[in-house]
Amino acid sequence: MKNFILLVFMTLFLMNCKSSDSIVxxxxxxxxxxTWIENKAFEIESHRANPQVSNGLNQLDSSIFGxxxxxxxxxxxxxxxxxxxQNDSVFxxxxxxxxxxxxSHRSSQSGGIQVxxxxxxxxxxxxxxKNRTTIKFEAKNANEVLDFTLAIFDNQSTTINVYSSQRSxxxxxxxxxxxxxxx
Length: 183
Known about the structure:
Pfam families: DUF4251. This protein is α+β, with helices and mostly antiparallel strands. It has a single domain, classed as Beta Barrel (Lipocalin). 17% of the residues lie in helices and 40% in strands. It is built from three helices and ten strands. Strands 1, 2, 3, 4, 5, 6, 7, 8, 9 and 10 form a ten-stranded antiparallel sheet that branches. The protein is globular, with a radius of gyration of 19 Å. 17% of the residues are buried.
């Protein structure tokens, strides 16, 4: 009887241990995604922000984040945001949750991450074994230098990591789509 219960438990456990590799992506979808990346014409909309948890964030009352959110994971579904790459330029409008190390009084920006600039040190590498393209670049706004690392998976899910000269690190989970320039 013990062996039977153990067998059932192990079977259920292993059935729930799926990886994202089990998501089937057609050749057409993969080709379309890689075309967006090669042409540098795509947009990412994030649905979740993952700030680096600091003592200050942990001390905030959990009700400030809203239902289903906490200091390390914040839902962005009703919060308009984007990271858009168009040729050699990047346009970013992302909310920021975390610790700022320096505050510039010259800033007319909100507390979010906002960039409209040319990308520097752009690199893109596809890792077939992980079904992922990693894009790295640097961008500068009026007050800080930002390093971006984008992980774009073949199933069109994304992770954006933002490293700043003036803020704690933050990451965003989202989805990629083609950027079509409005006429």
